Amino acid sequence: MKAIIIGSGLGGLLSAASLSNSGYEVEVFERLPINGGRFTNIPYHGFQLSTGALHMIPHGPTGPLANLLEEIGADVEIVRIKPSAVIRIPRKKGDTNYSFGHKDILFEDFKTQFSLINRLKLIFYAISTRKNQPNEGSFADWCTKHIDQDWTNRIADSFFGWALSLRAADVPVEEGFEIIEKLYRHGGSGVPMGGCKGVIDALIDVVVRNGGSIHTSSEVTKILSDNGKATGVLVDDMEHKADLIISDIGHPFTAMMLDDDTAKTEIDRYSNIAKKLKPSAGVKICLTSDKPLIGHGGVLLTPYARRVNGINEVTNIDPSLAPPGKHLTMAHQCVEWKNIDHLEEEIDLGLKDLEEIFSGKEYEVLLVQSYSDGWPVNRSASGTDLKNITPIKGLYVVGDGAKGKGGIEVEGVALGVKDALQDILK
Question: What is the three-class DSSP state of 17?
Fold first, then answer.
């Protein structure tokens, strides 16, 4: 059986490695000159910056991605971070910024910022909502209805802004609770040694070891099918036949490459649904310093910042990601859909946040990266992903446009790949 994978991002390579282990002849086509998509490293002045993800795996060595990597036989070391996350709040009670200093509390202690009555409400309504009304609007709607306290909205926006690049108002409440449940089940984040590229290189090794091939700078321009069944792809005007095709480029771009008169109605319906998907957008600001800005490898959540949702400093775990004596710190901020056309202003607000958060500390801005449109944080916002199947038999979609339920970023990619493979290999 021959499988062709469109795109060598994390979802594509997870699929390629898994199928190559299962006896498939695997061929991967990638339009970029590098592998990994938004989950690899780019060398920059001696630093290993990431093309997208922040050199972190949300559930560390026990989550869906780590489990799948182990099943595949990919040699990746993932170091659990402790503390997993810290929340920075203003030192002076009642302040809404960091102008008068700050204090850090462990993520597990976020409940201490609620009044006693709201702590009880939090437990009661979280349980009752999941049991009786799982589709109760957005997570922000739920917070406002049941626990109307400023802290609720701030910590929800900060957490989901970091984890999903979405405001709580854009996260379905059921998806939000599913994410929180998985967080407690699998634990907090970990750092893959070598950063994102360490994972990508390990997956490439599996594919090549099993006789598969990966072609960079090779763009698929059409998905071939006959009577509603995938038969191959067109690359540089050359046909490549296959029994199975997996697309790692999202549903909208996949739909654009379909042309089968015998399945026109189904393809048109699929295309119209895919066009309505909203990608999530964000900004990442990379900093360098001689001394640690955070001092630990966990996430620093910043609910009182203007735009920045969270920050990490992975060189406290893997010093090889920066030149000797230097630290790499990365701040991420969600960009609301209404602000997509004002990225410069969003970046300026993020830079002002960092000045306050790291007031009195010396650092240099290395690089500012933005993620939207065709190079987003996620091809579809979490909680709105379409499933892996398409109207064409033998054509599946994986990646950050077809994540599994409750999966934070790359964990969702791994869950989506497992769902697709279960359907294929059964």
Answer: helix
Spatial neighbors of 303 by CB under 8 A, at least 6 apart, are: 87, 88, 89, 151, 154, 155, 157, 158
Q: Is residue 90 part of a domain?
A: no
Which residues of the chain carry a pLDDT beneath 70? 130-136
> Helix %, strand %, coil % for the chain, to 5?
40, 25, 35
Q: Token pair of 249, please?
A: 């480029």
Q: Which three-class secondary structure state does DSSP give residue 326?
A: coil
Task: Please tell me the predicted confidence (pLDDT) of residue 133.
Answer: 60
Q: Given this model, what pLDDT does residue 135 score?
A: 65
Both 285 and 362 in a single domain?
Answer: yes
Beta bridge partners of 6: 29, 247
Which pLDDT belongs to residue 246? Answer: 98
CA nearest 371: which of 53, 55, 35? Answer: 53
Q: Residue 126 has what pLDDT?
A: 74
Identify whether 23 is part of a domain: yes
Looking at the structure, do residues 230 and 264 belong to the same domain, yes or no?
Answer: yes
User: What is the domain range of residue 206?
Assistant: 2-79+194-276+381-425
**Predicted pLDDT of residue 110:** 87
Q: Look at strands 327-335 and 281-289 and give their pairing.
A: antiparallel
**Tally of domains within the chain:** 3
Distances, alpha carbon 422 to alpha carbons 20, 168, 250, 392, 417, in Å? 15, 32, 19, 17, 8
pLDDT of amino acid 118: 80
